[in-house]
Amino acid sequence: MSADCIFCKIVAGYIPSKTIFQDDEVIAFHDIRPLAKVHFLIVPKAHIETLKDCTAEHQALLGKMMLLAAQLAAEQGLTGYKTVMNVGREGGQEVFHIHLHVFGGGPAA
Ligand code: AMP
Ligand code: ZN
What we know:
By secondary structure, the chain is an alpha+beta fold. It has a five-stranded antiparallel β-sheet with strand order 1-2-3-5-4, with helices on one face. The radius of gyration is 13 Å and the shape is globular. About 20% of the residues are buried. The site of adenosine monophosphate has 12 residues, from loops. The site of zinc ion has 6 residues, from helix 1.
C-alpha cells in the first residue's frame, strides 16, 4: 500500500467505491467521473505505478484483468465495449496505480 495513493485507499476500504467485484488480487468499481454510461475500473490490489513497472511476474495478473474486463462487461449488460490503460503522464494517466478502464453503453448522460 502507498499512503498517498487513492486506489490503495479504496483497496483498504478507507475511501468508499461502488464495487462490482473483488477477490484477493483485484478490485473493480465504477469510475467516479464516468465517460460512458457504463465506465468501471479494474485495479490490482498491489500498488504498481504504471504498466512500465510490470515484468514477467505480472503476466498472469495482467491477463486476469483482461479476462475480468470481459466477464464484468457481460455482467453489466454490455455486448461491446472499449478497454483502455493509460500509461504515464504523457499517456493520460492521472492515478499512478495501474488500472484498466472499461467503457460501454454510449456516452455518459
Ligand atoms: P487515469 O487518467 O487513467 O489515471 O484514470 C483515473 C480514473 O480514476 C479517472 O477516470 C477518475 O475519474 C477515476 N477516479 C479517481 N478517483 C476515483 C474514486 N475515488 N473512485 C472512482 N474512480 C476514481
Ligand atoms: Zn496504490
